[in-house]
Amino acid sequence: MRVVLGEDLVLLREGLIRLLTAYDFEVVEAVDNGPSLLRALVTHRPDVAVVDVRMPPTFTDEGLRAAIEARRQLPGLPVLVLSQYVEQLYARELMSDRNGGVGYLLKDRVSQVSQFVEAIRRVAGGGTAMDPEVISQLLATKPEPLERLTPREREVLGLMAEGRSNAAIAGRLFISENAVGKHTNNIFSKLGLPPSEDDNRRVRAVIAYLDA
Amino acid sequence: MTTATTRRVKRLPLLGWSFIFTVYSLLGIGLIVLMTVSSALLVLTVGLPLVVGFAYSIRGYNDVYRLWAGHILGTSVIRPYRPIPKGNLFSRLRVIGSDPATYRDYAWLWINAILGFAISLVSLALFASTIFYGIMPGLVQIVPEGVLDLYLGPVEVSRTQNTLLYWVFALISFGLWWWLAPKMMVGYARLAAVMLGISERARLSLRVDALASSRAETVGTQAAELRRIERDLHDGAQARLVALGMSLGMAEEMLSNNPAVAQELLTEARQSTSLALSELRDLVRGIHPPVLSDRGLTGGIQALAIGSPLQVQVDVVLPARLPAPVESAAYFAVAEVLTNAAKHSGATEAWVRARHVRGSLSVLVGDDGRGGVVQDSAGGLHGIERRLNAFDGTMHISSPVGGPTIVSMELPCVPE
């Protein structure tokens, strides 16, 4: 799997390259600033991009902007954004094109190596990987359109938004996969998501969740 | 008022003012006379209440000029008077009599009676002659021949030339009025501001007092903030890193003879880094939220709105990034107000509006809660006020019982 990496801190960049290579990813290019990142993404069209939010030249949200711009030029380009902190505003912007294949994780999640690698694979496959902190912030604040969900359904939606499969959710909540399926169907119908494009419904549920 | 910026003066309202001031400055002459007479009566005791009474009247009379000059110059002209004690008439007279502002007031009455009247009259006359000469040709048509004919020395001017000449006169007086009226009025307003406002010296000393107290507050707040950061680092991240080192050290020892325990310790170590990081994150957010550095006040307020349990409408239009300290002060102020609204007001909706107008950032935060906010010296709102004070900012709360609550903040600043 081909990866473009955008990270300005040498230590982290080298660490990530080592980690990714160890898990059979091919890092086609690693860049350290926003403009080069955009260029690299557009020329290599990688299977997935792993991007730091804050990068030169402005040291603000350069990486995020480059990623969003790249997704505008190459619709559906899978991007996993890493950040020192989570900001719901950024999570929303990242998902604003309503296409799957995005992730937004805290940098320290990298230390849970296997889960991190799994998140990259999920994003590359068009899924989502939202940091539990984004989810918990959302749960703590605005339940407005999600008020119709039962607490259990909200829990399921939270885990779904993190990008977990039904099996993983079942394992986490100690319920049967069947029960998870029932919950997800309830969630879809309560959020008004018709069963036509089954693959995308999970992503769209997450978007509904972020828009709350 | 050296810093006064002159707004573009509209001429038509000025015309109204000159009309009012021709009459009003004559009223001032009445006050001069009354004051002079009652001062003479001071030898008899009847003069005492009269002098005090007229002194108040003169102050009130001159307030009109203060308001007007402030309006024209775009600043406020501050009343310069010393506070008058509530006691008997005699002690009042003593304060009034020893206040230099009283004499400047009195001098202004004289100046105004002459100069103010003249200026208003000239302005009115120029405008009136414009109209007069403008309609003269028409008049000439109506009145019998010979009455309004114009003579230039021995030469009699014909009717056609007449008309043209009238219009030339009209144009000249209109031009004069157009050019002169605003200049005279602005000059006059400046004079009024100098005469009736506080003197530069007094203004500076007031300013020094205000700066001294706001600096003391700022220094105090900063010191408290540094102490908090130091304590948080010491009890949080530092302690975590020590624990982390311990776990790693023990894991190193155990690796060969007890791999299971070593693995447990490594897991623990990893969790410890996570906790340390999340504590550092919270700390950073409390010092300067990253989104504020990234996106400025606009993004910061949007992020606050998303994070608030209330439905928050955001309407922020700013010309450019503001100075970082101002952004930060405004951000934390809005955050505090929104938190208060969510916690105490019972509101479900709120709104934030921010603009940069006339050299200052103006932020309004409102909610649909039950109102009745009390601003005590220990509360969070007072903390905001102190924070804003450091930038010469002000805060005003309007919160009638039953709501709504609207907090308005002003922060002077220049966009970058």
Short description:
Chain B: This is histidine kinase. The complex is a heterodimer of chains A (212) and B (416). Chain A is α/β, with parallel strands linked by helices and 212 residues long.
* Outline type of chain B: elongated
Largest interface: A-B, 20 and 21 residues
Percent strand of chain A = 5-15%
Helicity range of the residues of chain A?
A: 40-55%
Give the radius of gyration of chain A: 17 Å
Q: Structural class, from helix and strand content of chain A? A: alpha/beta
List the helices and strands and how they pair.
The complex is a heterodimer of chains A (212) and B (416).
Chain A: E1 2-6, H1 10-22, E2 26-31, H2 34-44, E3 48-52, H3 62-73, E4 79-83, H4 88-95, E5 102-106, H5 113-124, E6 128-130, H6 132-140, H7 151-162, H8 166-173, H9 177-190, H10 198-211
Parallel strand pairs in A: 1-2, 1-3, 3-4, 4-5, 5-6
Chain B: H1 11-40, H2 47-73, H3 89-98, H4 100-142, E1 151-152, E2 155-156, H5 159-196, H6 200-257, H7 259-287, H8 290-307, E3 311-317, H9 324-345, E4 349-357, E5 360-367, H10 380-389, E6 394-398, E7 405-412
Parallel strand pairs in B: 3-4
Antiparallel strand pairs in B: 1-2, 4-5, 5-7, 6-7
